[in-house]
Each structure stands twice: as C-alpha cells, then as structure tokens.
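[audit] Reproducing an earlier prediction to check determinism. Same input, same settings, fresh worker. If the tokens differ from the archived copy the diff job will pick it up downstream; this log only records the rerun itself.
[audit] input (233 residues):
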Amino acid sequence: MIRDINPEGRDRSDLADSASRGRRVADPEAVPVRPAVSVIMLRDGSDGLEVFIQHRVSTMDFAADVVVFPGGRVDPVDFDTAPSIAVPDPAVHTSAWSRSTIAEEAEGWRVLLATAVREVEEETSAVLDPAGLTPWANWVTPVGMPKRFDTYFYTTAAGELSSAQHRTTEAHTSEWRSVTGILNAEDDGRLKLMRPTFVLLRELVDYSSVAEALRAERSIDPARPERPSSRGR
C-alpha cells in the first residue's frame, strides 16, 4: 500500500529538503526561478518499473539528503547546443510545454533537450538520444525557498542506458531501483522524497512496463505550489 500524500504544506515530502529549512530570504519574491531539467530513466525489472536515482549528499544547500532523478539547471552552453537538437516531431514538445514558461522562449524546447542530454551524460556517463525523451511533467518550486527552479521532467526508456553509473559529486550514490521499492522505503522513513519526486513515482507505479508508461497520453499542466513557507520568512 502506497501512502496517500497529505495536503500541500503538510506532507513530509514538502519538508524533505531539510538543509533549506531556516534559510532566511529577505525578499522571497526576488528569488529567481531558474529553468531546469530532470530525466526519469526507466527500465523493466522483476518487481515492475525501475528508475535510475541519485542519493543527494547532506551538504547540499538545496534538496540535501534526498532522492532525485539525474538533471540540473539550464546553462548558457545549452543555448549554443540547442540548434543541433533534432527530433522526429517537434510538435510533441511544443504542445507538451505550451502552458509552461519555456513556451515564451523561441525554440525553448530544444534548450531543454540539450540540457537533458548534457546533464545525464555528466552525471551518469549515459548518452541520451533526444528523440527518445518524452515530456512528462513541469513543477515550479514554491515562493519562499532560497532557490527556485522551473523543472521540466522527461521520461526515457533505458535500453543501452542500463549501464548508467554514478558520476556526480552532488550525490553519494546512484542506482537502479524499483518504483515500488523507493516508495516503500519512503513510507518507512528510510528515504526522503520531495513532493514532485513522490508524486511522479506514484504515477509511475500504476504502469506495468516501460512501453505502457511511454505510450501514456499526457496533458501537462504546470504544477506551481503556492503553499506558504516558513523557510524563507
């Protein structure tokens, strides 16, 4: 049984980024919202879907000691790389992000894909094919946090990416683990998940295979939590 998530601001997943608590932000509204990308790498396992996760180190000033998917913020180099990104049907991406902030950026979807490819290679050594990335979700960090991100989540079938390994210094461990195993460990208090990660894993647990998950029709409404936060007040 996977636990139900509590109302916004009351769930333990809202408090998972413990290292950010207590940080004072003079003007929370002035904290920039940086675009970022996170990639949910999927493969079929004996206990259902498996995902590649990273266990963040406890010294990080944001999302410390939590489980995350590979990814990171958009860097200037991604704008330089973006024109070379090619996919069979660009409309899949422009449509998926049409209600997201990135739609305001000309060819912004190419920048996101460039970021995904770069970040995953830097953090896992795996080289993604942009054509294999499927838009999945968009979450924005609530006001009041010392760092805020407009994060775009993609799914992709592992295939040869099953050989992905631990490379990032922002995490102490990386591993393939079943979705149900992660959620059960979170329920037991053995792992920490932030709300976006918890919600996305709860969605994925309903799929019996990677193929089924990637065939799912998605209508992406950006999640912009507005819960008040004492961490920056």
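[audit] rerun output stored. Observation attached for the diff report: Helices lie at 76-81, 90-96, 108-124, 179-187, 195-204, 210-215.
[audit] end
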